Amino acid sequence: MCNEKRGQKSINRCRELAYKNLSYPKSTPKTEANQWKKKTLQHKKHKTHKKHKAQYADKKIFVLGTASFVAELRKNGLNITETAEDGIDCVVAAYDSELTYEKLKQISKVLLTTDAPFYGTNPDLRCPIDFGFIPDCGAICNMITATTDRAPVYLGKPSRKVVELCLTLSGFSPEETLVVGDRLYTDIACGINAGVDTCVLFTGEAKPEDMENTAYPASYRFQNVKELLVHCTEAL
User: Fold this and answer.
1) What pLDDT digit, counting tens, does each position of 112-138 carry?
2) If you count DSSP H runs as helices and E runs as strands, how many of each does the chain have, helices first?
3) Which end of the chain is more exposed for a tag (fewer CB within 10 A), N or C?
4) Residue 43 covered by a domain
5) Domain total of the chain
6) Model-level pTM?
7) How far is CA 22 from the centre of its chain?
8) CATH number at residue 115
9) What is the DSSP string of 168-204?
10) Residue of 135, 58, 51 lying closest to 92 (CA atoms)
């Protein structure tokens, strides 16, 4: 199931967290996947804030994303617009469960009529949901690229900077860190790029059979979050 010789510090850290009055209600794999999705979105938002506050603090940013994502960026002092207008300095596309054709029209107009840099929050193609999957940010960006011939620079996974930011904020070392996710080409690749241990959960896009020929082999693999936590609490 996993390589017992690797990442003892990261497993010990998971074990500590598992004992800190955490409760794990029964849930389906899809429910677990959606819970992880919410946490992952928070990291993507933080990464986007960090990038754009440093480089575009006083600039106008066009954003395609959910209302909550746009509100979060504005809350952090960024000048955000959702309309193709004069003076746009960069373009950001994110996962958007509220996507409309009007939004696609606006972002296409900006990309086709300006040279503003184009960023995506993450290259994930599919987002797990109760009946299977829906398009994620990577799929949305692929559609935009096919229309405008403009490809985004992705700010989040699989860049190692995501993990480095988390280490800086948390104070933990790479040896104490375990990157957990359900996609090999973003989540697990991110951990590998950062030189930390990784764990793939088969609750979303990745499947056990994918592990045979993947370029992104995970240090550990489990069927779901509960199985991971059981292993962490039992690890010595």
Assistant:
1) 999 999 999 999 999 988 899 999 999
2) 8, 10
3) C
4) no
5) 2
6) 0.69
7) 24
8) 3.40.50.1000
9) HHH---GGG-EEEES-IIIIIHHHHHHT-EEEEETTS
10) 51
